[in-house]
Amino acid sequence: MTENIEHGLSEYLRMDRLPHIWCEGCGLGILLHAYVEALRETGMNLDKVVTVSGIGCAGRASGYVNTDAFHTTHGRALPFATGVNLANPELKPVVISGDGDLFAIGGNHLIHAARRNINMLVICSNNFNYGMTGAQYGPTTPKNMRTPTSPFGNMENPFNLVSLVSAAGATMVSRWTVYHAFQLKNAIKKGLLKKGFSFIEVISPCTTGYGRLNKMTPIQMMNQLKNNSRIAKVHPTEAVIEPEREILLGNFVDERRPTYDEVLAELERNIDE
Ligand SMILES: Cc1ncc(C[n+]2csc(CCOP(=O)(O)OP(=O)(O)O)c2C)c(N)n1
Ligand code: SF4
Ligand SMILES: [Mg+2]
To answer: pTM for the complete prediction?
Structure first.
């Protein structure tokens, strides 16, 4: 007789939505696990957390978490998350979305949310491509990598996400990989408790599209994250991602500045006096 064993994190997951849609070997399951584990370990009141996603494989995460959630249109997670926080500053929006969603179609929203220091945590799954639509190249694809839209190798320069977001004004900036699940969970815990615009880049293998086209097996992709990365205390501008170069990881920025909702509340108090 098979026993009905309850999932250890079922309180934090929408069990009726599982199994998830992600491919075997995809890093997104580890990312989601790190997030719900961080929710559990911080003891966050789930009624005060709103998970927001755009469109893409990473964007499916919001549907699996047992918080209030918005699965928004492509690139528009940050305007929704900003609205959530301004309508009720007690709510903590957590955006989980892809590199394409956040830095291509949604890139403008991202730099302005960071500039305004909106109190939210953004977790970006960087798999270096548009996974859901067939692995096309995007603004994070490293030079020379092959995709269906760069069959001879990508000729464009990618963004350095941690540098871009730091320059735009983010008050917490980190980069980890799904191999570094423990450090990733700790960074998410920190971001959940942090007041200010916080950003975590999570390097995550897209095995089906990007990996297959660049002749890497899922195991090779995970080994690459393990063997080709180093925790470093460097300025974010130095943490460039290039083929044949180590991926630099760590917590790059941790500052405290007044958030948008704090400045707004102060302004309202001054007007009332
Ligand atoms: C306005 C609009 N343009 C294009 C698309 C098609 N589209 C869906 S997901 C996606 C890219 C997703 O890439 P990314 O954010 O990196 O997520 P991933 O699938 O890699 O996790 C695109 C272009 C769309 N849904 N809406
Ligand atoms: S296409 Fe890539 S990113 Fe999407 S679920 Fe599959 S492996 Fe993951
Ligand atoms: Mg992507």
So the answer is: 0.97
